[in-house]
Amino acid sequence: MLAAPDAGYIMIELIAALVLMGLLALIAFPVLSQSTSAPRYRALLVDTATLLRQARNTAIARGEPAYVTFDHRRILFKSGSRSVAVPRDVEVGLMTGSRCVASAESTQIVFRADGTNCGGVFRFVRGGHAARIRTNWLTGHVEILQDSN
Questions:
Q1: What is the pLDDT of residues 52-109, one digit of tens each?
Q2: Are 64 and 74 in contact (CB under 8 A)?
Q3: Among 24, 85, 101, 109, which one is most buried in terms of CB atoms within 10 A?
Q4: CB atoms closer than 10 angstroms to residue 62
């Protein structure tokens, strides 16, 4: 019995389709993996809150003001030699008190020796999840609040 002349084409077409799907998956995977995971997002919130708390503690311990600067261009929080970089897929918004130092390039939260600060709320949004880090101007207390979406 002779095989039909096109009997092997279905198998070759199937293999070619699988190879193309694999190549597309390899191309798409790095794009998908660049988004910030939920644990990484939570770590960002905790690291930023810790940076603010450490600045407050430094101001009290040294008896002089300490600053946390948010760089609008580099999307980075910095205090002394420590910094926290915000991933590109996380949006940051901020509202600060009138005594905070603000310019087009950066905003500074000022912590004073008595534990007070100029007050501020940082809002972080990733996908459908949003959270705020709030610094109480009177007590200097820093807290993370999950927004309900």
A1: 999 999 999 999 999 999 999 999 999 999 999 999 999 999 999 888 999 999 999 9
A2: no
A3: 109
A4: 10
pTM, rounded to two decimals: 0.76
Q: Tell me the residue ranges of DSSP E strands in 1-149.
A: 66-71, 76-79, 82-85, 91-96, 101-102, 106-111, 120-126, 129-135, 142-146
pLDDT tens-digit profile of 10-62? Answer: 778 888 888 888 888 777 766 555 678 889 999 999 999 999 999 999 999 99
List the structure tokens of 111: 């912590």
Write out the H or E segment, with its range, that includes residue 75: none
Output the CATH code of domain 38-146. 3.55.40.10
The one-letter amino acid code at 139 reads T
- Cβ–Cβ under 8 Å, residues 109 and 67: yes
- C-alpha 129: how far from chain center: 11
Each as own residue / partner, the long-range contacts of residues 143-148 (CB below 8 Å, 24 or more positions apart, any chain) are: 143/49, 144/45, 144/46, 144/49, 147/123
